[in-house]
Sequence to fold (340 residues):
Amino acid sequence: MDREKQLQAFYKGELSKEEAEEFLHWYHSKEGEDYLSSKLQENWEEKGPSVGDRDLWDKEALFGKIISKNEGRNNPQQPKLKQFQPRRNWGMGIAASLAIIFTISILGYQYLSDKQKSPKETLAWVSKSNPAGQKSKVILPDGTTVYLNAESSIRYPKDFKTNRKVELKGEAFFEVFSDKQHPFSVKSKDLSTTALGTAFNISAYEDSDLTEIALTHGKVQVEEISGSRRAELIPGEGIISHEGKQDFIKENIDVEAVLLWKDGILHFDDTAFEEVVRTLERWYNVRIHIEGDHDKGFLCSGTFDKNEYLSNVLNILGHSIGFDYQINKQQVNLKFNPQK
Fold:
């Protein structure tokens, strides 16, 4: 093997983990020391080789290069150190040699550590997201269909066909392509949902303490990320979890009502008013400001027509709860009437 090319590849970070391990083993061997020392002395004594050739084997020069490269990586704004020029003083050469052996050991450790980072750190991800007021349909690389609600996002690894893991923020309905060799799982907040081939809905918005999982067909297993609790669901069942309450409730769910959002239909079933406000903000891409005293524990119920105008929704809610409203582009002001 051409050791000169190998050293250049190591310095550039182009060696594989196995190649880097082999190189470091050779570098610290007696053979490696003798070879490097001979090349160093040969290049110092010869006048013919170019500066580039001398720098490769001049450990003092190489030390300067690696330090510059390391510091530049840690602080991109910091100017690189000037390259050391070869010196004739052999004592200085020995000192530089010791320094470069120490440095290349550290560099080798960093090199191999980078190669051994956990999949969470090194995995390349693909992300899909919707802003408020927009819904979308996403086809994953394995054929799974995802209906993504407003102000929601998913991400999955690039090797998804063999590593079917999805992370969800917000709400989505999954129609999972069956592949028994590669289980499909979705991480949403503190819960993980695993399925082979099925369809289910997950609602796990960051600004809500509620996570809801509803199964339409097939079978899924839902478990806490901590592994403390888990449950298997059959169609029509769901899991309700509230952050901070440490609950994990399995119950029957009206699946048709849960999925109305896919068809552009707003549906509230004893939903807290504050949650209704957050839903309207996501649904219509507006910001709602509330004035006046109101009952924060008020529960709202109702189903609206498909793609109903915001003004119509506010008319009905305002009449029921007792507020007036104004819409100014993306800003909505609700003013509660004084209670008599």
